[in-house]
Amino acid sequence: MARIEINQSLCKGCALCTLLCPEELIKIGNQINENGYFYAVFTENGSCKGCALCAKICPDVAIEVWK
Amino acid sequence: MSEKKIFSRPKTLKDAPFHFCPGCHHGIAHRMVAEAIDKYSLREKTIGVASVGCSVFLYDYFDVDVIEAPHGRAAAVATGVKRARKDKIVFSYQGDGDLASIGIAETVHTANRGENITIIFINNTVYGMTGGQLAPTTLLGQKTTTSPYGRDFMQDGYPIRMTEILATLEGTAFAARVAFTTPKNINMAKKAIEKAFQFQKEEMGFTFVEILSACPTNWGLNSIDSMKRVEEEMIPYFPLGIFKERKAADVL
Fold this sequence. Notes:
Strand content of chain B: 15-25%
CATH superfamily of chain B: Thiamin diphosphate (ThDP)-binding fold, Pyr/PP domains
Distance between the termini of chain A: 6 Å
Oligomer: heterodimer
CATH architecture of chain B: 3-Layer(aba) Sandwich
Number of helices of chain B: 11
Strand content of chain A: 25-35%
Strand order of the largest sheet of chain A: 1-4
Helix content of chain B: 25-40%
CATH architecture of chain A: 2-Layer Sandwich
Low-confidence stretches of chain A: none
Number of helices of chain A: 2
Order of helices and strands of chain A: EHEEHE
Radius of gyration of chain A: 11 Å
Largest interface: A-B, 28 and 30 residues
């Protein structure tokens, strides 16, 4: 059981994390942050394995992983 | 069951948002350099040298001392810093317009002298900050603002492979080319950057890591398509791998 936390204000919505997540748990949401970007949102359904690939690819270091 | 944080921002990276465009790989390179500095506990004795280009704001993001070098001269400035303060770890962080074009003489001679510094070289095949002009590393046929019909070798020559050039020099201890396109490549990149700092710590000689990076804004692509372009167009011309790795026995 693992989870990630996406820092909404750092996210620029580049969607690289959505490409790498093996469980496809990250999607670009329909809300914008204070910089005007559609930020990524995490769906917590218990299948996140904490592989941290999303955090490793994130160019803005906006993701923290907990396991 | 208690949760444990397994991934967070490295200590060497300040808590400041990057100015880079969405999907730019500079941020990943910044994080990996910061993680390598953290791994060997070098934060108190590291001096960075920022070049001209998108990498110029190094001092805003790294919690180490940073000197700003004139355009292309980061390797020369790093040489001076290292010779004056031999106990410090010195790295420069340069783009392709800076290192492969205006600063190619400084870079080649720094490597040839075997200066004990680390250069992190970001190759995105274009001048990023100045508006997407043709760089020495621009691929054949690639359209830029100064090559609107695509790069033609009759007029502009062929793209330069910097890692191969520097790997032929005696002073170079470590030369590698990495990318951030797949999980395997990301792990390889992390190892290469850590090894470069480890070699400098062990005073093995000049260390060089070239990172193939995406520039979505100047390529006119979105972040996912630019990552595919790195994989499909750049890696076939700029092959990944470690081109030179000096063994400790070679130094003795």
